[in-house]
Amino acid sequence: MNAAQEQRPWGALSDLPGHPMMWVLILTEVVTFGILLMTFAVAGAIHPAVFAAGRAQLDPVLGGINTLVLITSGWLAALAVEARAGGRRKAAGPLLGGAMLLGGVFIAIKIVEYIAKAQAGIGIETDTFFTLYFLITGFHLLHVLLGIVFLAAVAVSDSLENLKTGTAFWHMVDLVWIVIYPLIYLIR
After folding, report:
1. Radius of gyration of the chain measured on its C-alpha atoms
2. I need a surface site. Which of 3, 54, 58, 184 has the fewest CB within 10 A?
3. In this structure, what are the phi and psi dihedrals at residue 61, rounded to the nearest 5 degrees?
4. pLDDT grade, residue 13 (50/70/90)?
C-alpha cells in the first residue's frame, strides 16, 4: 500500500464527513428505500383506484407537519455540528437534544396516524396501498428511532467526527421522508 492509499483507506468515502462505514450504511438504506418507493409507484400505476382511495384516507396535514418537524430537526443537528466545529462544544448538546426531541415528536405524530387508521379498521392487510404504506412508513419510523439512538450516542461522545457521523444518518432519514411524503400522501 502506498502513502496515498494509507491516507485514504476508504477511497472516495474518505472525503465524506463522518466515518466512512456510516456512508456504506446510508447507501444501503437509500437503495432499500428506493426499491420500496419504486414498488409503491409501480403498484400505484397498476392499481390507481386502490391508491387514490388509500390516499384519500390519509391526513396530508399531519404528514406535512411531520415533514416540517424532520426538516427542523435536521437543521438543529447541522447547527450542532457547526457549533462543535467552531469550538462551541457546550452549544452542540442542546442542539442535538432539540433534534432528538423533534424526532420524538415525529414518532408521536406517526403513532397518532397509525392509531387513527386502526380505529377506522385499516391495517397492513387492508389492501396493497396500506400494505405498502405501513411497510414504508413503519420502516422509516424504525430509522427515526435508530437515528435518535445515534444522535444520543454522539451527544455523549461528541467528537466532531462522531457528530458528523451521527448527523449524516439523521440527514438521510430526513431526506428519505421528503421523498416519502409527497409520493404517499400528495400525488393523486
Report:
1. 19
2. 3
3. -70, -45
4. low
CB 148 within 8 A of CB 188: no
Phi, psi torsion values for 87, nearest 5 degrees: 85, 10
Would you state the pLDDT for residue 2?
Answer: 46
Query: 185: how many CB neighbours lie within 10 A of its CB?
Result: 19
pTM: 0.87
The answer to whether 102 and 70 are in contact (CB under 8 A) is yes
**How many CA within 13 A on the CB side of residue 45?**
5
- In 3D space, the residue among 139, 168, 138 whose CA is nearest the CA of residue 151 turns out to be 168
Query: What are the start-end ranges of the H helices in 47-88?
Result: 48-56, 60-85
Question: Counting Cβ atoms within 10 Å, is residue 114 exposed (0-12), middle (13-18) or buried (19+)?
Answer: middle
Give backbone dihedrals phi and psi of 125, rounded to 5 degrees, phi first.
-100, 10
pLDDT in tens, 129-151: 999 999 999 999 999 999 999 99
**What is the longest distance spanned by two Cα atoms in the chain?**
64
Buried b (16+ CB within 10 A) or exposed e, 143-165: bbeebbebbeebbeebebebbbb
